[in-house]
Write a structure and sequence with these properties.
Helix content: 40-55%
Oligomer: single chain
Order of helices and strands: EHEHEHEHEHEHHEHEHHEEH
Number of helices: 11
Strand content: 15-25%
Structural class: alpha/beta
Largest sheet: 8 strands, parallel
Length: about 270
């Protein structure tokens, strides 16, 4: 499972050590993770890094004292310098998303959209394909979402929303990124959450701590029985001269069709990572 690692803009000095862990996707957080009064300070630190344009940036898009009004002055500073990769938080509605896109139409941004309001979640159900070219990924900002809903933050309560966001992403071939966990001490609970997301179809997850990355990186997502079955399927496939002529076969009492081939490849890729 691919990790999208949130790191506060105030901790850019940690990037060198985190790179050693072979984390590939970083999100530098200038929104909730640092004080508004310190954003400009850490903005200057970031732009002085030689590889800073490789990172996604989560930046505030709203007025500090009027949270329902857009303020695009901070993100504009990055875009004027050629930054393209952003995580959009706190977007309230499709209309608001359209306003941001219209403002930066010429910038060709790569956007991960955080769904953090019920309204945006519902409106995306019928409009997601319109934004296929604008989005590289979508994910659920589950804690903000549940604070608006007024419910407890549990996997059970998030079940339907997580599943539907996954389907929205799959429908337009963009990355679906599973929720971030604030629990960095309960290893078993985190593993359960990761596995739950993976079994739903998520292949990427937001993380906030190196411990979480280590857990994900050492997890096996399938049983030995599933690995054995996958190996048998690909062994049968290797016997065919024309790999496109794969007729249904029976292995260990189970009917295997073409749809099972890609799954078998995915399982063995996980085994050999």
């Amino acid at each position: 499972m691919e990790s999208y690692f949130f790191i506060p803009g105030s901790k850019l000095n940690k990037l060198h050590e985190l790179h050693k862990l072979k984390i590939k996707k970083f999100i530098i957080d200038f929104e909730d993770a640092i004080k508004a009064s310190e954003r400009n300070k850490f903005f200057l630190e970031l732009i002085n890094l030689s590889n800073s344009k490789e990172f996604y940036l989560r930046v505030p898009l709203h007025c500090l004292r009027k949270e329902d009004e857009l303020d695009l002055s901070f993100i504009s500073k990055f875009i004027d310098l050629g930054y393209k990769k952003f995580v959009f938080p706190k977007i309230a509605s499709i209309d608001q998303f359209d306003q941001v896109l219209k403002t930066f139409k010429a910038a060709s941004l790569e956007i991960i959209l955080l769904i953090e309001t019920p309204r945006l979640y519902l409106e995306l159900q019928s409009t997601i394909l319109k934004y296929q070219k604008n989005l590289t990924g979508i994910g659920l900002g589950s804690h903000d979402f549940m604070s608006i809903v007024g419910g407890k933050h549990t996997l059970k309560n998030l079940e339907v929303v997580r599943q539907n966001i996954l389907y929205l992403a799959k429908s337009c071939n963009i990355t679906s990124i599973d929720i971030a966990s604030m629990n960095i001490t309960d290893k078993e609970s985190f593993k359960e959450e990761v596995l739950d997301g993976y079994n739903k179809g998520y292949k990427a997850k937001f993380i906030i701590h190196p411990k979480q990355f280590s857990i994900i990186n050492n997890m096996q997502f399938y049983s030995e029985e599933e690995y054995t079955q996958a190996k048998k399927i690909l062994e049968e496939l290797s016997k065919l001269e024309d790999k496109n002529e794969f007729n249904p076969i029976v292995i260990d009492g189970k009917v295997i069709e073409k749809a099972h081939i890609n799954k078998a490849k995915q399982i063995l890729k996980n085994k050999n990572k």
